[in-house]
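chain below, 321 aa
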Amino acid sequence: MSAPIALSCGEPAGIGPEIAAKAWDHLRGDCPFFWIGDPAHLPPDTPVALIDTPSQATVACDRTLPVLPISFATKAQPGQPAPENAPFVIQAIERAVELVQTGAASALCTAPIHKKALIDGAGFAYPGHTEFLAALAGRERVVMMLASDQLRVVPATIHIALSEVPTALTPSLLRDTIQITAAGLRDQFGIAHPRIAVAGLNPHAGEGGAMGTEESDWIAPLLEAMQTDSYTLTGPHPADTMFHAAARARYDAAIAMYHDQALIPIKTLDFDRGVNVTLGLPFIRTSPDHGTAFDIAGKGIANPSSLIEALKLAQRMAQST
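prediction:
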């Protein structure tokens, strides 16, 4: 039996504790995982088993949510992050990474964090969760994949202004993105010969230069050159024709050029069940594709679907490696 999945608690004033309890109740022993955090932050009716090691979680999760406990500085108030808890949120992530790197956990799933709370309370020096994980793993470059049963898509550039995309999008960046995506599809998704479709940057993929020349100047030549490196690539495609059902059947993952070009189609197709996957790490990492949702925290109405899918995908990926 494989090791259980480590679920870091994320921001305790958000919906993370609530959806962790709901995900456990839905999955139970079908997808063994343990939660790293302060058990006092979980909903009061959550059946909890405090564990000392991840190996204890596999047996415990049938009847209780296994918790590897960390005592936080203060009680969590829904919707009101406490800066003094920030060092312990970070500690939970670091502990989870340690366990997955040693093989005590088969994969890492992360609940959403709140960057401002981490900056205010712990001087957090990273743009986000993914960059922190890359630093802990000693990796300079990772990529974000959004995945569901209907689509896998990777944005080459992520959280930058649209005006900055043409400058940030370089041949080196796109090549790295393709290479990391292909390796992830092979090694973590078990796809021996991944097919990757690449979007153009401009409307209609430039329409022969009438709407931009990046496609003809360097994107198409790069894809052609990489075909000789045993990559199965197509494109650059007009983004507005890449995401209907017949098009999606022709590739295993799509690479988009910027954030909204990637996230609009997957959130339209499968808003509640999309999963954030980090490729390029030396371990499996998934996360629900949403934030802390302070506005509904503590109300008992948070939808756990994305976290459930993130845990299930982490399990499938672990079984494929």
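The two ends are 14 Å apart (CA to CA). The longest strand covers residues 232-237.
thats it, cya
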